[in-house]
Design brief:
seven-stranded parallel sheet, six-stranded parallel sheet, about 50% helix
Length: about 500
């Protein structure tokens, strides 16, 4: 008696609820494969909803993967160097990992690798680590990328047979995560029905260029336009936390710009896109963009910088405007504004720090002069209320600014150039986490509570002074008005 056995597929990738664009991409691919009737299991490099969890970084991770990979008919790897290479910047580490990863790659019955990002310089044939990488990339049956420029670069950088490098559409398996229409999405986010909304969304990191969008939006809030930057910091790296803090300060200096920091689920991600009028992708570098594909799902126009493979990704769309620099970015945003929202001045470039300058430079005085309280994820207060209470909010900002500029405390950095030191630091981190993490959390909560208390106190004091001033002003006209009456009598 024979039975038809479904093809067993192993997907190696981060997986929800991990906050990662590749995790969301993998989830949609898994759903598509299951619709085809395949038996799909997922192995993730960390705790998630996947079937299996395995630390893939380093030679030990590669060897552990080799023990599991032979049980499947097909293996699909969603590849990013950070998932496998403990220290992608160190040539010796890269060589050791490439050599180790070659074992599971060779043992797979049928191996497909979807490359989401890779540094072509690491395929230099004149270096030992480059030779190891080139041998590794000759092993997959197929390598998949999203644009022709990525394909051309990969073939040249790693010496791979062009016939094995295939193009796949970035959004081929994408499905909507929300059923709300524009009006419903805006109501749920607290956005005015008649507002014109620019949206920049994704992980907050320098490569995404969200600061460029905020700079370009300066002066465009007249008539109801707004810019919403939505996302969270992907890693707890000190540089990323500092960039986030600088972005918060920059958004405080630009009227109508709001940074919504926090976890963004797939449903909330799509809800923001539905609520927007234009999606802005001011990237500094990227291979291809999942956000562009999600904007296409909901027919939202896109403004994007001409980097990586975005031009090719956008080739089939008529509603994508590509720009080459910050001047063109601002011009493209102005072009999208309705006539009633056009700015009256173009002096924006002189009022903000130029591109390339540290965001922190020149911002602190502006922060002290402007509102300090953070808008919530549900949106801004009405424009009239913000204008009327500007003095009150500015006073709150002056009180709490020194505390708000302090970065949140995170876990200690376990990176180090020497592997032995790195291992010891990680062991110590694991051994002391149960003691340190609650203290770190409580310190961050204490900082946030102190900021709130200072701002509430400052608001109450400023509002009391305003009330006293209005009362005195009301009495003065009455007194001067009584004099002619008395004289006339």
């Amino acid at each position: 008696m024979t039975t038809d056995r479904r093809e067993r597929v192993l997907m190696i990738s981060p997986y929800p609820p991990v906050r990662d664009g590749i995790a969301s991409y993998a989830l949609q691919t898994v759903r598509a494969l299951r619709r085809e009737g395949l038996d799909v299991e997922v192995l993730s490099p960390g705790p998630s909803a996947a079937h299996h969890h395995l630390d893939l970084r380093g030679p030990r991770g590669a060897l552990a993967l080799a023990k599991r990979i032979r049980d499947y008919d097909r293996v699909i790897v969603q590849f990013h160097p950070d998932f496998f290479y403990p220290d992608p910047g160190d040539p010796r580490s890269r060589m050791a990992e490439s050599l180790a990863l070659a074992l599971p790659f060779a043992l797979a019955r049928r191996l497909e690798v979807v490359v989401h990002e890779i540094d072509g310089r690491h395929g230099n044939p004149r270096r030992p680590d480059g030779l190891a990488a080139r041998r590794l990339w000759r092993l997959p049956e197929s390598i998949k990328v999203h644009t022709e420029s990525e394909r051309t670069a990969f073939v040249a950088d790693f010496g791979v047979d062009p016939a094995r490098v295939q193009l796949i559409s970035h959004g081929a398996d994408f499905r909507p995560h929300t059923q709300l229409d524009r009006e419903q999405a805006r109501a749920s986010l607290g956005i005015e029905p008649d507002a014109f909304v620019f949206l920049a969304i994704g992980f907050i990191q320098p490569s995404k260029g969200f600061d460029r969008a905020i700079r370009a939006f300066h002066g465009l809030a007249s008539g109801g336009a707004r810019l919403d930057v939505v996302g969270s910091v992907r890693t707890d790296d000190p540089d990323m936390r500092r960039h986030h803090a600088d972005l918060v300060d920059l958004a405080d200096t630009v009227e109508g710009a709001t940074l919504h920091s926090g976890y963004v689920s797939d449903e909330l991600f799509d809800r923001w896109i539905v609520a927007s009028d234009v999606v802005v992708l001011p990237y500094r570098n990227i291979w291809s963009s999942g956000v562009m594909e999600r904007a296409a799902l909901f027919d939202r126009p896109v403004i994007a910088t001409r980097v990586g493979g975005l031009a090719e990704q956008a080739a089939a769309r008529s509603d994508v405007r590509l720009v080459d620099d910050d001047v063109e970015l601002r011009a493209a945003m102005i072009e999208r504004l309705p006539a009633g929202n056009l700015p009256t001045t173009a002096s924006w470039a002189e009022e903000l720090p130029p591109e390339g300058e540290d965001l922190r430079a020149g911002l602190q005085e502006r922060v002290r002069q402007r509102a300090s309280s953070r808008p919530s994820l549900t949106g801004l207060a009405p424009a009239g209320e913000r204008t009327a209470g500007a003095a009150v909010v500015a006073e709150a900002g002056r009180r709490s600014a020194p505390l708000r500029r302090l970065p949140h405390i995170g876990p200690p950095d376990t990176n180090h150039g020497r592997r032995s030191v790195r291992l010891v630091k990680r062991m110590l981190r694991k051994a002391t986490a149960f003691e340190i993490d609650p203290i770190v959390q409580r310190l961050n909560e204490l900082q946030a509570a102190t900021v709130t208390a200072l701002e509430l106190e400052a608001r109450a004091a400023a509002e009391a002074r305003q009330a006293d001033g209005k009362g005195a002003g009301a009495k003065q006209p009455g007194a001067t008005g009584a004099e002619p009456t008395a004289a006339g009598s």
